[in-house]
Amino acid sequence: MKSAGKQTVLLGITGSIAAYKACELVRLYQNAGLNVKVIMTKHAQRLVGAATFRALTGNAVATRLFDDPGNPINHISLAQEADVLVIAPCTANVLNKIAHGVADDLLSTTALATTVPSVLAPAMNAAMLKNPVTQESLRVLEVAGATIVGPGKGYLACGTEDSGRMSSPEEICAATLRVLAQSKSLAGKRVLITAGPTREYLDPVRYISSPSSGKTGFALAHEAAQRGAAVVLISGPTKLLSPLGIEYVPVTTAEQMLEKASEHFDGADIAIFSAAVGDFRPVRRAEQKLKKGEDSSFTFDFSANPDILATLAARRNAARANRPYIVGFAAETEHLLQNAEAKRRAKGADLIIANDVSDPRVGFASDNNRILFVDDAGSEQTELMSKQQLAAIIFDHIQQKL
Ligand code: C5P
Question: Where does residue 394 rank: exposed (0-12), middle (13-18), buried (19+ CB within 10 A)?
């Protein structure tokens, strides 16, 4: 159970020489009014004693699975009691383990079991950091919603001046406080998100679709859930796993997506339409697999799919309701601002998030994006960043408008 009053930081300390800096981090958390509980790995205890953290925090230090015979699933209760999990320093070993779901000690098991936001402060040798395996783990963890702080450049314990140095306790504490401040900011709000592509079948095995990966919508769903919202994610087929703690509604066609979105729309406070909905569907779907004929050409008749965003925005606007706040996306190749503003008006949305898909660094299946917010107050351009970082910026922007 979470204790009333102070928020709790669960601080995981791993076997990097930077472990001693965790003492300073504990003090900074306490000065910020937080309760700190510490988990140490076996290797961390060879660098700093558990007794130090016991004395600094006033709480027992957890070191092993099955430590407490009265509470054999300590990792679950530790994970549930915390408001945020911080791992600082986070070694290459622990980072790579948790990115792949390995749970072979108390800290990695807790990291896998927790549903609270996490902040990771990597600390490692430069070669380990540059290793593509570590880079991939950082990407996986960021997509999964972790906040990665640093590492920075500086003097490393191996005697070189390079990247891999743990960020300062001040930076880690500031990032933790930001995550905690956001973590309840959508409590009590309902968020509806459409994501991914839709599929329109021509016959039982062939369909038309788009290469949308669903990454943006899933990152938004994850971010909203981390901020305490009740989230409904309605998605076409993707390879992504549904984020924890949300209501996931899988659909295939545009009509199914409209039906499900319509069910959840009126009760939502925010509705974000990030799906790449197919604009057309075949008038007739063949019952059996189409055969190659003598004739080398085929003809299909298509009819227009409903515009989900425009249909639901028209419903809200006709009812003169001011909820939900409606967000649409616009993928453009030119005249970004003009096209986005025209789309905002035509569809009846409050905010359009536009991006330039002619830029090879961004777009459909990429992990990164750079966006332009267009609403009735004007426009605002972001930097190029990961879709998870953008999800946070998108909610910061939306929440100012609620
Ligand atoms: O018209 P266009 O496809 O460029 O509009 C993009 C925006 O409209 C996106 O937010 C998308 O999710 C939404 N949309 C929709 N239903 C459609 C087509 C687009 O909700 N049939």
Answer: buried
132 contacts: CB under 8 Å, gap ≥ 6: none
Report pLDDT digits (tens) over 43-68.
999 999 999 999 999 998 988 877 66
Q: Are residues 87 and 205 both part of a single domain?
A: no
The range of the structural domain enclosing residue 72 comes to: 8-183
Q: Looking at residues 206-216, what average pLDDT do you find?
A: 92
CB 299 within 8 A of CB 264: no
Pocket of ligand 1, beta carbon within 6 A = 194, 254, 273-275, 277, 279, 305, 307-309, 328-330
What separation in Å is there between the alpha carbon of 326 and the centre of ligand 1? 12
Check whether residue 331 and residue 258 sit in a common domain: yes
- Give the pairing type, strands 325-332 and 351-356: parallel
User: What is the per-residue pLDDT for 262?
Assistant: 98
Tokens 């500086």, residue located: 154
Q: Are 281 and 331 in contact (CB under 8 A)?
A: no
Whether residues 171 and 260 fall in one domain: no
- Choose the final residue of a domain: 183, 215, 244: 183
174 with 217, same domain: the answer is: no
